[in-house]
Amino acid sequence: MIKKAVVWVLLFALLLVPANPGVFAVEEETGLQNENRPLTGNENAPLLENIPFEIKAKSALLMCANTGEIIFEMNSDERRPIASITKIMTMLLVMEAIAQNKISLNDVVVVSEHAAGMGGSQVYLAPGEEFTVHDLLKAVAVHSANDASVALAEHVAGSEGVFVSMMNEKAKELGMINTNFLDCSGLTDEGHYSTARDIAIMSRELITKYPQIIEYTTIKHDTFRNGTFDLDNTNHLIGKYRGITGLKTGFTDAAGYCLAATASRDGLDLISVILGAESMSLRFSETTKILDYGFSNYEILKIERKDAIAGNVNIKKGLTLTVPVAYEDNKSVLLKRGQRDKVKEEIRLPEYINAPVSIGDRAGEMVLLLENKEILNIPLVATEEVEKATWIKLFLRLMVHWFSLARR
């Protein structure tokens, strides 16, 4: 019986080969597997060449935080002292340390003499006082406390000096090529600088990677030291501007009045940066003007289909004929208002891909088109593994299939 089965299987396999040689071919062929065509990305050039209104500041920038696109800019690469805007990087590293379980919000921090000796905006920490990371972070985000910033820096890195090195390393990692930090509070003017563009970059990293920081930056009023010290947010747009979520003010005589503001409406997240305004009221009014322009003229289209199946792709030289493909990630595209209905969607699948196939291998793309121009694509990836076909694997598979039919 077994000998007859083997004979029938071999005859069956031989009959199949000329009928569909591509299914069992094991030599290399030119296919479409793992296309390495670069994905279309958002350019770093501003969407608008000319700012549509006057901005009363030394530098300014408006960024879409969802995509990283710059809508417009003014002197955005001009190096300037940034005062307490520095604390955005301080908060970023604190949140990163929390996420990495190096510290926790409940950790108790003992205030050092160095931290207690900071001037400027402060919560008047005394050497030996103890506060949680949560309380000190609140003092930094709301009250812009320099002493609390140093206390947190020392808790994360052991000393402010080491922490500042970490700040510069993170700036380099993020591509902030025109930034140099000398302290964690922004009290230093000479040699301590950044730009509107770099500030937007680190602001985006903070709010997108650690959105829980918004729980602190949106506090309008709170207290410190068991209710004995009032914390009032230095960002006067909190509670006044619709959708405002932060982020940080700054002022020294050299820096002028500065504000990195974040706001969100209908899924569109914007970052506005104002550096070197001549008055406190101007930094808030100019920021309002910038954000109003962004929300009035732009909207966000989100494609949230990560892991959803988009179709099936044919397999050559594999043990299975097709493989399901899914959206690799969620993505967003920034649109001018009125363009949404003009956007067209295409699913582009290759004619086939060659085995072997691993989970996550590129196998097509979803493309958004606006007036026949590609504005976004999301890679489609294989969701199953497919082994490469060999004669022995095909033979064994046919035997199993034949015996299963014989038992019926």
Automatic annotation (TrEMBL):
Substrate binds at K248. SMART domains: PBP5_C. The keyword Kinase does not apply. It comes from Thermoclostridium stercorarium subsp. leptospartum DSM 9219. The active site is at S84, K87, S144. It catalyses: Preferential cleavage: (Ac)2-L-Lys-D-Ala-|-D-Ala. Also transpeptidation of peptidyl-alanyl moieties that are N-acyl substituents of D-alanine. InterPro entries: Beta-lactam/transpept-like, Peniciliin-bd_prot_C_sf, Peptidase_S11, Peptidase_S11_C, Peptidase_S11_C_sf, Peptidase_S11_N. Belongs to the peptidase S11 family. One of its GO terms (biological process) is cell wall organization. Pathway: Cell wall biogenesis; peptidoglycan biosynthesis. This is serine-type D-Ala-D-Ala carboxypeptidase. Its EC number is 3.4.16.4. Residues 1-25 form the signal peptide. Removes C-terminal D-alanyl residues from sugar-peptide cell wall precursors. Pfam families: PBP5_C, Peptidase_S11. Keywords: Carboxypeptidase, Cell shape, Cell wall biogenesis/degradation, Hydrolase, Peptidoglycan synthesis, Protease, Signal. Residues 298-388 form the Peptidase S11 D-Ala-D-Ala carboxypeptidase A C-terminal domain. GO terms for molecular function: serine-type D-Ala-D-Ala carboxypeptidase activity. The keyword Cell wall biogenesis/degradation applies.
